[in-house]
Amino acid sequence: MKYMRYRLDGRVAYGVLDGEAVHPVEGSIFGPHEVSPQTIPLAGVELLAPVAPGKMIAIGLNYKQHAAEVGKPLPEEPLLFLVSPTAVIGPGETIELQTPAHRIEHEGELAVVIGKRAYRVDEAEALDYVCGYTCCNDVSDRVLQRRDGQFARAKSYPTYKPLGPVIATGLQPDRTRVRVRVGGELRQDGATSDMICGVAGLIAFVSRVMPLEPGDVLLTGTPSGVAPLVAGDTVEVEIDGIGVLANPVAAAAAGGVPGGAA
Q1: Domain holding 37: CATH number?
Q2: Is 190 helix (H, G, I), strand (E, B) or coil?
Q3: How many domains does the chain have?
Q4: Which residues lie below 8 Å from residue 254, measured CB to CB, with a gap of 6+?
Q5: What are the Rv2993c-like N-terminal domain coordinates in residue numbering (predicted)?
Q6: How far apart are CA 171 and CA 169, in angstroms?
Q7: Alpha-carbon distance 8 to 46, whole Å?
Q8: Nearest Cα residue to 237 out of 171, 174, 188, 169
Q9: N-terminal to C-terminal alpha carbon distance within the chain
Q10: CATH at 181
Q11: What DSSP character marks residue 66?
Q12: Are 51 and 76 contacting, i.e. CB atoms less than 8 angstroms apart?
């Protein structure tokens, strides 16, 4: 099943995608709900990011090949950090480069959407707490990342976390592929089987640090091939079983961000 979040006549709702039609969902996808047999043409709704997360937890250096390309040793345990949910945008929305003179890179990632409260869960049961999976582009300012020595600012500016296009259920998260194309050119092509810590292990690990709530999003790391984005690009993140998340890229309006000068 592919859940989508949309706006119609000023109202935000969930639906189930069925080809070029949408079946409205009655109730919350994070609780009891029913899928209506009625349909709405997909072309008649505004597609939004598939979730408005309460918090976003990201994992760094979780692919062996990516760790190799940046010359870092494999972490002994998942490298955990938070990014702001205010950075989230949906399919088709514009990534606005806040500091266009900086090296700002794409990172295609499998994103896990939590379906029910998870706290101190066992790895064997961890996937039972998942609502589904979506695509993320973890846009990252490398200049600020190096300057700060940590990740929050470099990855949290508005528009730096595109999500979408849908939340797919029934996916085998450790047996899919993540691809990123920029202007049609393949940049990243990695198998989630290359993850150092798989999805179930990540959920168990994070849930021992903090409770995961319905609608929270866990970003699972990126494969090798990260590269810069520039104004005028169109970047696509494609994950088998989910679909394609596409976003144009532009320079942000004049003014920039505090502390952003090179």
Answers
A1: 2.30.30
A2: strand
A3: 2
A4: none
A5: 1-50
A6: 6
A7: 7
A8: 188
A9: 45
A10: 3.90.850.10
A11: H
A12: no
DSSP string of 230-258, one letter each residue: -TT-EEEEEETTTEEEEEEEEEPPTT--T
CA distance to 96, 152, 164, per residue, from 33 (Å) = 36, 35, 21
Is residue 141 domain-shared with residue 246, that is, in the same domain? yes
Whole-number average pLDDT of the chain: 95
Its pTM stands at: 0.95
d(CA 121, CA 204): 5
DSSP 107: -
pLDDT digits (tens, 9 = 90+) for 31-62: 999 999 999 999 999 999 999 999 999 999 99
What SS3 state is found at 186? Answer: strand
Q: Name the 3-class secondary structure at 159.
A: coil
Domain residues for the domain of 27 are 2-47
Ramachandran quadrant class, 92 (left: phi over 0; alpha: psi -120 to 50; beta: rest) = left
Residue type, 7: R
Show the tokens assigned to 220.
Answer: 């699972």
Angstrom distances, CA of residue 4 to CA of 1, 22, 25, 212, 259: 10, 8, 10, 21, 37
SS3 145: helix
CB-based contact 227:105 (threshold 8 Å):
yes
Residue 120 CA: distances (Å) to CA of 30, 208, 209, 233: 20, 5, 8, 42
Model confidence pLDDT, tens digit, residues 189-209? 999 999 999 999 999 999 999
Kindly tell me the burial class for residue 208, based on how many C-beta atoms sit within 10 Å of its own C-beta (0-12, 13-18, 19 or more). Answer: exposed
Nearest to 63 by CA among 199, 241, 161: 199
pLDDT tens digits, residue range 19-31? Answer: 999 999 999 999 9
In a domain, 256, yes or no: no
